[in-house]
Each structure stands twice: as structure tokens, then as C-alpha cells.
Design a protein that fits this description.
Blueprint lengths: L7 H9 L3 E2 L17 H13 L18 H8 L5 E5 L6 E5 L6 E2 L6 E2 L16 H9 L5 H16 L19 H13 L4 H7 L1
Antiparallel strand pairs: 1-3, 2-3, 4-5
Helix pairs in contact: 1-4, 2-3, 5-6
Length: 204
């Protein structure tokens, strides 16, 4: 996909909804990478990789250095509540499935069943659907500044050895970009290019 210059947003969206055999459907491997698959751990990984945001601190209390709350954390984790794994016929094969009836996680403080909610955004209607599709439609888009700027920052860091936000996966209020205007412009350019990374590479 990288060699074919697949747009980065399409690449990310495919990974988010990966389903089936990890042998036959490569995007499904996203969900086999963690040692233990839980909605919470998956949500942390997705937020960190695609949005540059570490939400781990909001698992047991509101984030002390950022705006994320427990409600944000468990609402985002609910997108992955229905993801399940089972072994295939061959030892290394893993089947990634999704149960659309399982779309909530329990809030650790008051036991509320938290429904899927975009990080810092609204709650989509996912009744009877795989909510990861709604997540992909929100996350991997030109309108999502966090996604486009994180992808642009990763590309920048590849060439300069340091991100405009450093580390590239630790965007927070207390770790601002060294050049906010540059980061914003790179993100807008990447989105305007249809997430064609090669065009942004040429600019850099």
C-alpha cells in the first residue's frame, strides 16, 4: 500500500475496520499486534498512532495535563467493545470479528454503560452497526485536524529526526508544537493533496 502511494487516510480507515483472517485480510493484523486485546488498550493505541494523543492517563482519573476525561476515554474505548479474536486453522492465523450487539463499556466510577463517542467530538448513531466504520469516517478525514497534523508531523520527523511536536505521538496542551503555524500548514497541505504523502515529501 505504501509503495502504491495509497492515500494515508484510506490506509488508516482500512486498518480501523480490519476484519477476518489476518492471513487473507492484512488490515486485520492491527488487532493482533497487542499482547492482550481489550477495548481500552485498543483505544489507547489508536488514539496514539493516528491522533498523536496519549489518553492513558484518563483511564482512572481526568487527565492532569490535558483536557481528556474519564468519559472521553471510555466513550472512545466503546468503539472497540465488540472486537473479538479467535484462532484460525493454522497456528499463526487469527480471525478478527465484530459483534455489533456489544457496543458499550462500563464506566469504572459509576458503572454507566458508555456508548461510542468520538474523542473530543459527538456520539454517532451506531445502533446495530460496526461503530468502527463511523470512527473511520470521522478520524481519517481532511476535516480532522488532529489526524492530518499527526500524519504530517510523522513525515516531517522522518526527515528531520524530530517532530514539530516531539514525541510525535504525544500531542497535548503541555507539549505544544515548536512551530504551530508550520504544523497547521503542513496538515492542511497534506489534506489538500488528498493525503498523497509523496507530494508533501516533495514540499518538505
Amino acid at each position: 500500500q505504501m509503495a502504491a502511494n495509497r492515500p494515508l487516510n484510506e490506509f488508516a480507515a482500512d486498518l480501523l475496520v480490519g476484519t477476518g483472517s489476518n492471513f487473507k485480510s492484512p488490515p486485520a493484523n492491527l488487532y493482533t499486534a497487542a499482547e492482550r486485546l481489550t477495548p481500552e488498550k485498543t483505544a489507547e493505541d489508536i488514539a496514539q498512532v493516528f491522533l498523536g494523543t496519549r489518553i492513558q492517563c484518563a483511564q482512572c482519573h481526568n487527565h492532569p495535563f490535558d483536557r481528556w476525561t474519564l468519559d472521553d476515554y471510555y466513550g472512545f474505548a466503546a468503539f472497540f467493545a465488540g472486537v473479538n479474536l479467535k484462532r484460525g486453522l493454522e497456528g499463526r492465523e487469527v480471525m478478527v470479528g465484530y459483534n455489533p450487539a456489544n457496543t458499550t463499556v462500563a464506566h469504572p466510577v459509576d458503572g454507566r454503560r458508555m456508548k461510542p463517542k468520538f474523542l473530543g467530538g459527538d456520539a454517532p448513531d451506531v445502533e446495530g452497526k460496526d461503530p468502527r466504520k463511523a470512527l473511520a469516517g470521522w478520524l481519517a478525514t481532511a476535516d480532522n485536524a488532529a489526524f492530518r497534523e499527526t500524519m504530517a508531523n510523522v513525515i516531517w520527523a522522518h526527515f528531520f529526526g524530530r517532530g514539530i511536536v516531539e514525541p510525535v505521538d504525544d500531542v497535548r496542551i503541555s507539549n505544544p508544537p515548536s512551530n504551530k503555524e508550520l504544523l497547521e500548514e503542513l496538515g492542511k497541505k497534506l489534506a489538500a493533496y488528498g493525503f498523497d504523502k509523496k507530494k508533501l515529501v516533495r514540499d518538505i
